[in-house]
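Input structure tokens:
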């Protein structure tokens, strides 16, 4: 009998603990949803509600996954994946991830470097068989390398790709894209400035990386990503296949934008390494967590030494309130007034036609968030408000600046400032 009562006691204790954790989690979600704040925090500012802000910005649907202590704390979706058919967003709804594709490509690249299939610092043409980067004065002076391409310092052309309407009958191959063939409707990828000198964002550079990966493994890129990243991490709702195969197309969100050029349908991106990823916040959160574990020497995809290279500064992009730098495939962000290693974050953002995405994680400490929207408008507005709310609720180290404290002045004092300046 005493064993029976012991069993009941243990079961009750476990249920109580689970209920307590669920209650705390629910409180964190509620706090997040009602704590959206502007770029400069203001003390006692009446924070915004997520649904009100979605209406304000005209965001049809949003999906979010929050990372805390190296785990997904929660994932939740809001709004509609398809406004015509009234299909709601779920945590399994897939979004076009845009340039977050480059982060995944960088991880594949570094895995091949660890296996000796590729080299970070040898001329990139040494790794290319199906296509070669044309020699020029710039490349003869300083050969372009994988390290340069990963950090957008290779001096290569074609900053971005804009995709194709799904009605395009024949999609270009990667070689046709790199060559700028008429079918591709883009310019040829060339080196038009000296490598290693400065940051210059280049989607074309990542297409060169894709070609090197495919030549090294002699496989299609979507299959490589599946074998190297998605299957090992259990990322079941992620793919680089373009156009989307039927099993994924049925769970993909529709894209929306008010831009005059947008044709009102999800575009196709055969420029896979640069922009072709479809995924969910939950899957991408698993990837961020894995990278954080790799940094601590507890991951599976990369060694700690390689991951530390990934988040080591190659070049500085800008410096204001935040210091923005570039590592190997990952953007690095920290407050300019912060000198602590605990306040360093790695991130990548994405913007395809009708979609915007954000993925950010702390280098140390196991915090982060992934946000995916089926709206291509207001890139630095709603998504960054969501990110700041998560940072506030979860107390991210040295991420948000100190709140501005408003000063109340008498009307006479305010009147004294009236005039033309």
């Amino acid at each position: 009998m005493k064993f029976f009562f012991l069993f009941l006691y243990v079961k009750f204790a476990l249920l109580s603990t689970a209920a307590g954790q669920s209650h705390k989690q629910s409180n964190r979600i509620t706090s997040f949803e009602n704590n959206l704040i502007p770029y400069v925090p203001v003390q006692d500012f009446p924070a915004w509600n997520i649904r009100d802000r979605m209406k304000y910005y005209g965001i049809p649907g949003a999906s979010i996954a929050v990372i805390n202590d190296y785990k997904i704390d929660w994932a939740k979706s809001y709004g509609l994946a398809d406004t015509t058919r009234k299909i709601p967003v779920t945590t399994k709804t897939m979004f076009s991830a845009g340039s977050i594709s480059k982060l995944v490509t960088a991880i594949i690249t570094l895995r091949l470097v660890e296996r000796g299939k590729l080299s970070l610092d040898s001329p990139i043409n040494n790794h290319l068989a199906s296509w070669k980067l044309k020699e020029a004065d710039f490349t003869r002076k300083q050969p372009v390398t994988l390290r340069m391409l990963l950090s957008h310092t290779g001096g290569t052309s074609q900053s971005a790709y804009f995709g194709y309407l799904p009605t395009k009958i024949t999609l270009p191959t990667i070689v046709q894209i790199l060559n700028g063939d008429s079918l591709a409707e883009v310019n040829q990828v060339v080196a038009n400035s000296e490598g290693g000198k400065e940051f210059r964002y280049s989607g074309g550079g990542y297409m060169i990386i894709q070609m090197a990966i495919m030549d090294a493994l002699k496989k299609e890129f979507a299959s490589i990503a599946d074998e190297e990243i998605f299957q090992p991490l259990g990322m079941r709702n992620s793919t680089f296949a373009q156009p989307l195969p039927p099993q994924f197309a049925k769970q993909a969100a529709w894209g929306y934008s008010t831009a005059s050029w947008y044709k009102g349908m999800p575009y196709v991106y055969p420029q896979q390494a640069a922009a072709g990823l479809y995924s969910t916040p939950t899957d991408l959160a698993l990837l961020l967590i894995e990278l954080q574990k790799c940094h601590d020497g507890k991951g599976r995809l990369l060694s700690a030494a390689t991951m530390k290279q990934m988040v080591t500064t190659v070049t500085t992009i800008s410096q204001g309130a935040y210091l923005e730098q570039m590592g190997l495939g990952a953007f690095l962000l920290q407050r300019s007034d912060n000198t602590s290693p605990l306040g360093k974050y790695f991130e990548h953002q994405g913007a395809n036609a009708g979609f915007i995405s954000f993925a950010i994680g702390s280098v140390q400490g196991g915090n982060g968030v992934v946000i995916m929207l089926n709206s291509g408008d207001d890139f630095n507005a709603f998504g960054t408000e969501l990110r700041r709310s998560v940072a506030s609720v979860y107390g991210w180290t040295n991420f948000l600046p100190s709140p501005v404290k408003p000063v109340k002045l008498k009307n006479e004092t305010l009147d004294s400032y009236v005039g033309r300046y």
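The two ends are 87 Å apart (CA to CA). DSSP finds 14 helices and eleven strands in the chain.
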